[in-house]
Design brief:
It holds the Pfam family MHC_II_beta. One of its GO terms (cellular component) is MHC class II protein complex. It is found in: Membrane. Residues 124-212 form the Ig-like domain. The chain is mostly beta strands. It folds into two domains: 2-118, Class II Histocompatibility Antigen, M Beta Chain, Chain B, domain 1; 125-235, Immunoglobulins (Immunoglobulin-like, Sandwich), CATH 2.60.40. 13% of the residues lie in helices and 44% in strands. The protein has helices spanning 84-91, 94-101, 103-109, 111-118, and strands spanning 2-5, 16-19, 38-47, 52-61, 64-70, 75-78, 125-130, 140-149, 155-160, 163-165, 169-171, 175-176, 182-190, 197-203, 211-216, 221-227, 230-235. It has a six-stranded antiparallel beta sheet, with no helix packed on it. Strands 7, 8, 11, 12 and 13 form a five-stranded antiparallel beta sheet that branches. The chain has a four-stranded antiparallel beta sheet with strand order 3-4-5-6. A hairpin with a 4-residue loop joins strand 15 (211-216) and strand 16. The longest helix is centred in the middle third of the chain and has 8 residues, at 84-91.
Length: 237
């Protein structure tokens, strides 16, 4: 076991946390040891620019909030019984309270930086392909791969012959890359027929309008349209 001690004067929280150190198993047996995770999450909330600023900080143990600080309240609050003695201890330390109460001023001073970072975006890359090499009249999975985009807010829809498909659509969900960008795979289970045209449509803040990649079941190719009137043709394998 490893022990992490955070001193009383650190402006964080005065408690001792016990962490389980994960060691690689030497044999292929089920590891039933419990894992414990402690987190601290702070956030700044803005209304009408800096007219109304709120600073929040939450202490989380195993995905459960046990102590929180709200600048509108001005002190630490216990959310669970575990957090009651910790909140009382933190509230008894004037230097800690003063530091957290000043958090709203730090949020206000950082507003321009937050606005700059939140306004940046990276456009997605899109590819549509079937998982089987002989797709016609056989059960298949059409994959719409959307990658390398920021921010993570994105809408992906499947269409067949102009009609939106909702049944048979599965997704990996949002996956974080190591460079702050995201990726996702949205798949459509279907039996492609000759003459059918499938389309994956993506909406993202980096684009002023949706972008569509089409996949033609007959000639097995995909066409991208919708961004500044451009079209890109990609012949499938």
């Amino acid at each position: 076991m490893a022990y992490l001690w955070l001193p009383r004067g650190s402006g964080v929280t005065a408690l001792t946390v016990t962490l389980m150190v994960l060691s690689p198993p030497v044999t292929l047996v089920r590891d039933t040891r419990r894992r414990f995770l402690g987190q601290m999450k702070g956030e700044c909330r803005y209304v009408n620019g800096t007219q109304q600023v709120r600073f929040l900080n939450r202490y989380i143990y195993n995905q459960e909030v046990f102590v929180r600080f709200d600048s509108e309240v001005g002190k630490f609050q216990a959310v669970t019984e575990l957090g009651r003695p910790i909140a009382e201890d933190l509230n008894s330390q004037k230097d800690v309270l003063d530091n957290y109460r000043a958090g709203v001023d730090r949020c206000r001073n950082n507003y321009d930086l937050v606005r700059l970072l939140s306004g940046r975006s990276v456009a997605p890359s899109m590819t549509v392909y079937p998982t089987k090499t002989q797709p016609l009249q056989h059960h298949n999975l059409l994959v719409c791969s959307v990658s390398g985009f920021y921010p993570g807010h994105i809408e992906v829809r499947w269409f067949r012959n102009g009609q939106e498909e909702e049944a048979g659509v599965v997704s990996t969900g949002l996956i974080q890359n190591g460079d702050w960008t995201f990726q996702t795979l949205v798949m459509l289970e279907t039996v492609p027929q000759s003459g059918e045209v499938y389309a994956c449509q993506v909406e993202h803040p980096s684009w002023s309008s949706p972008v569509t990649v089409e996949w033609n079941a007959s000639c097995y190719l995909s066409i991208r349209t919708g961004f500044k009137g451009l079209k890109f043709l990609r012949v499938g394998k």
